[in-house]
Design goal:
Blueprint: E1 3-9, H1 14-24, E2 31-37, H2 45-49, E3 56-61, H3 67-77, E4 82-84, H4 96-106, E5 112-118, E6 133-134, E7 149-152, H5 153-159, H6 178-188, E8 193-202, H7 212-231, H8 238-255, H9 259-277
Parallel strand pairs: 1-2, 1-4, 2-3, 5-8
Antiparallel strand pairs: 4-7, 5-7, 6-8
Helix pairs in contact: 7-9, 8-9
């Protein structure tokens, strides 16, 4: 079983080096790394050259901006039986690829699996599902993130490309949720996807406080989330329910005197509404 890893990258070097080192540490070696490079310089050339004799690397340039456009370039080149989409600042724990292959070989009924992430020291963010379960359109928001998705070839053959209006660098307001949109489209095709609580990848935790930078980043994320909910035709009751939960979080944070967190959640709900309206 061959795994194609599609890496969209721009502006990062040390983080890519960390990912490459984690791939070299994998005991399962039947994989290829397709690097879709959107940098204007050659910062990755020598770094990638140093790994070419260790595992298969395909390095291509993409002038088009945006993570979804880059992943679509990679999809045209990937020939693996399993497709995954590592972020350029994530890294894999030892044994991850062998675990993915073992699970998929043991469970041929599954079309894809997803996991969660920590920063390597056990810290995470978001509200992950508490146990392993099949994904549906309501729990998918708590059961996957782009770099934790592993799909069989038949899924990407059926679903096709990422929505290029979504994600970082798309040139729109919808700065996230392109992976969730892809999973929702996969579910509509009838594919069986499962979240595994013990499938853990690593990624920096971005929101360690609720400062202006965190609020700005969250606005882009939540706008994308609201938009993806809208374009995937959620029932009328679902979106207001998500907003009410966040509003309850605002009230709770204010009651505790945590005004930065209250502002963060306020920004979140406004951005999600903007995405839904858009």
């Amino acid at each position: 079983m061959k795994i194609s890893l599609i890496l969209a990258t721009v502006g990062r070097s040390e983080e890519v080096a960390r990912l490459l080192a984690s791939l070299d540490a994998q005991d399962y070696r039947n994989f290829e790394l397709i690097v879709v490079d959107q940098n204007q310089d050659d910062r990755l050339v020598s770094m990638l050259a140093s790994y070419r004799e260790k595992f298969a690397i395909r390095h291509v340039r993409s002038a088009a901006h945006g993570v979804s456009r880059a992943r679509n370039v990679g999809l045209e080149l990937a020939d693996g039986d399993v497709i995954a989409f590592p972020d350029d600042d994530c890294w894999y724990p030892e044994g991850l690829l062998q675990k993915v292959v073992t699970i998929l070989n043991t469970h041929p009924e599954l079309d894809g699996i997803t996991g969660r992430f920590t920063d390597g020291d056990g810290l995470t963010e978001g509200r992950w599902l508490e146990s392993s379960t099949l994904l549906n359109r309501f729990n998918v928001w708590r059961g996957a993130i782009e770099f934790s998705i592993f799909l069989r070839r038949r899924v990407v053959d059926a679903v096709g490309k990422f929505n290029e209006s979504l994600g970082v660098g798309a040139g729109t307001a919808w700065g996230a949720a392109e992976g969730t949109d892809y999973l929702l489209r996969s579910l509509r095709h009838g594919f069986k996807l499962k979240f595994l609580v013990d499938l853990t990848l690593h990624h920096p935790v971005k929101t360690t406080n609720f400062d202006d930078g965190a609020c700005s980043r969250q606005k882009k994320y939540e706008t994308g989330i609201g938009h993806v909910m809208r374009i995937n035709d959620y029932p009328p009751w679902y979106f207001p329910g998500t907003c009410l939960r966040t509003c309850a979080g605002i009230v709770l944070a204010m009651a505790k005197g945590d005004f930065p967190k209250a502002r963060f959640k306020y920004v979140s709900v406004l951005a999600r509404m903007q995405g839904w309206r858009g």
